[in-house]
Write a structure and sequence with these properties.
Elements lengths: L1 H15 L8 E2 H9 L5 H10 L9 E2 L17 H10 L18 H12 L1
Parallel strand pairs: 1-2
Helix pairs in contact: 1-2, 1-3, 2-3, 2-5
Length: about 120
């Protein structure tokens, strides 16, 4: 079972690499790319939070562009650090504090990017 979780976590991390600077997506979208549904969204969030070397974790958010309130960087910095990283990359935020939809990348787009990488 631990091996399956590790393989899934590695796949989540690989999918996250498809999210470019200045973009964001959701844990559910990564799950949809990986397994065709959003049922692994929590597992994606856990992997992003705990897997050493999980790059682009700051680009994975809750639905609607909400930064998870318990988000933590590897150095312990909190959700404001996530926001600052996204802003430095060019992601705009709305008045209610969510990442702007103009920077959102859907599961469908991530699948297309993955397929083009294989071609």
């Amino acid at each position: 079972m631990a091996r399956r979780k590790s393989a899934a976590s590695e796949a989540f991390a690989e999918i996250a690499l498809l999210v470019r600077e200045g973009e964001w997506t959701t844990y559910g979208d990564v799950s949809r790319v990986y397994r065709g549904d959003g049922l692994a969204a929590r597992a994606v969030g856990r992997a992003a939070a705990t897997m050493p070397g999980f790059r682009n974790a700051h680009r994975l958010l809750y639905g609607g562009g909400r930064i998870p309130p318990d988000w933590r960087a590897s150095d312990g910095k909190g959700s404001e650090e996530c926001r600052q990283r996204l802003v430095r990359e060019g992601v705009a935020f709305t008045r209610n504090g969510n990442a702007h939809q103009a920077h959102y990348v859907s599961a469908e787009e991530l699948v297309a990017r993955y397929r083009s990488r294989l071609a």
